[in-house]
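Can anyone check this?
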Amino acid sequence: MSAKLFKVGVVLSPRPWSGRLHAFIADHVRDVELIVVRDQRAAIEAATHLLLVDDSTPWLNPSFVNEAERRGIRLVGVYDRDDGGAGRARLAALGLTHLIEEGMPPDDIVFLLDRVRPVGGHDVATQHSADEFIDVRATRGAMIAVGGPSGSGARELAIGLAAEWAANGWSTLLVDVNETTPGVSRRLGLGIYPHLLTAIDRVRADGMPGIAGALADRVPAVSFDVIVGLPTPRDWDRLVGNDVETLLDACRDGWERVVVTTSPLIEDLQRWGDRFGVSRRVLSIADVTVGCCEPSPRGVLRFLDWIAEASVLRPTVMTVMNKTPKSKRIVAEVTRQLADVAGVLIDDVVEVPFDRAVTAAEWDGVVVKRGGFRKAIAALTADLDRALCSVEVPL
């Protein structure tokens, strides 16, 4: 955090989050002045930049929320995720747009609070939006969905595409919408907060400029922006297809290329809660869909199952045979099997070779720098750019 003093108010709460946060800031954060408030009057007179309240605060009511807004005090709600959603619903009904789980570690809470630190009378998110979104093309950005069965390397392919477009000067955003095995944050060594649900909340409150407050902290090895996925797959039921579509639609206004990872499973389970409904929605609205296949008997069978489901959502899928070996016989056999079984669903197969540099990059938590994988990705992005030229990007 910056050296400028940041005044944060915390309600006197019987819940443990208040004491944990107070102790952490006192021991580890030097540019935050923490003020404990007991009632409405103290909360207003403290004139803090931010005020953390929870759903058990007895004097938290619409009139106080309006008064805090009038005085420029940003309210941040703290809720218990184990109460069935009642606390979160109450805070949202009062108009609080910034909500934090009670069980979140104090360092992550401080990180999120710093994202909404006022700068010159404006939110950090607003300041970021002025810097990052000022150069927007007349046409909206394109969305590329990347999917494939487990073990195919679809996540690595999506990261490679985002890195290549960013290296070529495109403003690029990678969004992890995989509701089954979200892993972009672990792959790139990023924090799990803020995440996809944060981005949805920010878009709902502030529109496209709010996305800046939900981006992962950029590290030197990553040249593109990232919205990390769910902190745990158990949160899949908190994702709603319409909300994700609204988020991705807003992302088109801020980035020229939006690369989206999807679940390895996309079976239609609408009768049972639509477990993979978000990934299915993403595949159906993307401008271009890339399917990733592992060149092995198991990989072919899995990919054929995947593309059978994907073809219902997207008639045309660009098939990528990932981690191809040097053996021409194996490559030819996989291509033949795909064409014989899938028929018209397989228009062409793009080969991406096996590269030890990918494994090294995974260990180091960085993008692949150079080698056969990166060269193949460069050719693939060129193919995708040509495909996107024939797609009418919505205005």
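Reply from J.R.: I decoded it. The mean pLDDT is 85.
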